[in-house]
């Protein structure tokens, strides 16, 4: 790894910095602050977009279609976004994606405020936002290591998760107030403006303080090389399988909570919103605590976290009333984020620098793209068998798959340990023979 002599020496103080050690990197501090504003804007738009669709169509199907259109580009382009991160300057890519996302939000806001908005325009702009996000997400994840270096990467991942989940507590409430006072239009304008700060931050980063690698120009940078690399690394593949299982089966809380609130407990939209806040409290706490992760993230933390998540999700389905169900949700949010942070840190720390972007692209494809794949199935189960069964099956499948991978990992480690001991015994025997023969 090539590092400029101008880069500040932060390694000697990293342990003392604790959970906030990544903030000693000026580039990360700058990006983190403006990204918090952008994340709040993103949550503001999510609520406003859902409300706008319902105002225009009064259709839950249309709402589901908008969500699907926004997630579809993730399935189609995340791998290519990861490959792009390995080919070009990540900062330039992020500037372009933030400009595109900001323009998409501003155009929708202008259409709403001038009373010219139609549902097809919402579909198009939601797809546009999803396209820029599909490219942005793996590049942004991969860019974290360039801002803080490999030693502080797990901490940066945790702080970025806290950033996102903290914004999740603020954004929806702010959007609700703005919609009640001004309608949905200003929410889109606010989100569009929020991207300006991120663009300014990206342009203000100091290149000499970035932790960049010097990769050979002859390296094959195609997507298939990244896929082959993950397939040849069983520990990486195991982490991705766990996250994929969680995403498809267990992370569809928006659907499960809505079904439980309305059909199981007979509550309204306000009570449903409180369930989302309860989940976010656990998520934020996990993101803050996981910032104290060590510098050597391991697969066992991913396995244990996912198994615990599956169990508490299963148990939440047994809660007899609304109050006890709400009390169980912070535990679900806590273990979900603990697992995701551990998986992201482990995958990014384990990936080869030349393949970092493509490995992250594969991870984001599974993590983000799995939810819309599983949501129709989870929704169908909740409708046919009852809301509790969507949680029973989602949590149960996640716990079983994670536990099976845990057994596999223990056996793998045992084989490696036996192989190491055999090599040591052979080495000792050769040394004894040399001593006896001498």
Structure description:
Helix 6 (153-182) packs across helix 13 and helix 12 runs antiparallel to helix 15 (387-437). Residues 1-6, 8-16 and 433-438 have low confidence and may be disordered. The chain has 15 helices and no strands. The protein is mostly helical. The protein is globular and about 65 Å long. It has helices spanning 14-17, 26-57, 60-87, 90-113, 119-148, 153-182, 185-204, 223-232, 234-250, 253-264, 269-290, 299-316, 322-350, 356-384, 387-437. The chain is 81% helix and 0% strand.
Number of strand elements? 0
The proportion of residues forming helix, as a percent range, comes to over 70%
Give the topology string: H per helix, E per strand: HHHHHHHHHHHHHHH
- Rg is 23 Å
Content-based structural category = mainly alpha
Shape: globular
Give the oligomeric state: single chain
How would you characterize the largest beta sheet? none
Q: Alpha-carbon distance between the termini?
A: 45 Å
Number of helices: 15
List low-pLDDT spans.
1-6, 8-16, 433-438
Which strand-content bin applies to the residues?
under 5%
- Average of the residue pLDDT scores: 83
